[in-house]
Amino acid sequence: MPTGFAYSDYFLLHNDQPRIPHFESSDRLIACLDRLSRNNLFPTFYKPDIKPISIEMLSLVHTEYHIQKVQDSAGRRGYFDGDTPFTEDSWLSAFYAAGSGIALVDALVEGKIQNGFSLLRPPGHHAERDRIMGFCMFNNIAVTARYLQINGFKKIFIVDWDVHHGNGTQEIFYSDPDVFYASIHQYPFYPMTGSFDETGFGLGKGTTLNVPMPADSHNSAYIKAFEKKIIPAIEQFRPEVILISAGFDAHKRDPLGGMKVTTLGFEKISDMVLAAAYHICEGRVLSFLEGGYDKDTLAECVDVHLTVLDSFS
Ligand SMILES: [Zn+2]
């Protein structure tokens, strides 16, 4: 079965011309598309039809107030928070970005794909149940996890290797024993959450794993953390599906992150997670773009990540 590749031109509308100056721009996706097309990666992928997500699905994760706030931004320009601008059609990008997770789950359930990746924006892992923040409007991966559960996949494992801690995803599943959230990130760093002693609450105690890393960490430290902590957590939890918050801003060339990971490092950790999925959950992996702000570096990382997904499908 092929790898799914979810992409929509609607993802480009957020902060469209004239742009509010920002790292998180549509140039990121365009650079990825250019590279993937140059390297002829597209013919083997299954491309699901993406629809805007329904309010009903968003309500599985976000409050009515949160959803309304995004809808109310239609046709206007401004800032949701200090880091998160919106323009006239940003809300459309947000609805389609979250919808891409629904489309990938449908394709997975229908047996059309083995695994998949969504080249989306705006990203999602900082968005909390009731808070837009850090370039993120809807928590795309959280909505996908809930939709997987509706489709009969009870236990979900989320791996988040974006350089920033995914405070939103952690908050949403903090007391949920069926969704494991594991994050490796620079610490202390924005958004200042994600210390090692944040491990979940109530029934969810033990299903949050934070692996905070000092600035300037290299591939070797990342690979070791996956070997010693994240992969064993996957093996112990035995999920039915693995989701990846695939941010590439821990790359040494990233202008926002402070890490020293290389493209080869991202290839290696992609391979480790896919290999674990192959043994534990029949290779079911859905991956979602988060950060990565040097566009050519991002394109290179997305290329190797997709090549790894493809090699397991
Ligand atoms: Zn990030």
UniProtKB/TrEMBL annotation:
InterPro entries: HDACs (IPR000286), His_deacetylse_dom (IPR023801), His_deacetylse_dom_sf (IPR037138), Ureohydrolase_dom_sf (IPR023696). GO terms for molecular function: histone deacetylase activity. Coiled coil: none annotated. It comes from the Bacteria. SUPFAM superfamilies: Arginase/deacetylase (SSF52768). This is Histone deacetylase. Pfam families: Hist_deacetyl. Gene3D superfamilies: Histone deacetylase domain (3.40.800.20). One of its GO terms (biological process) is epigenetic regulation of gene expression. Residues 22-308 form the Histone deacetylase domain. CDD domains: HDAC_classII. Belongs to the histone deacetylase family.
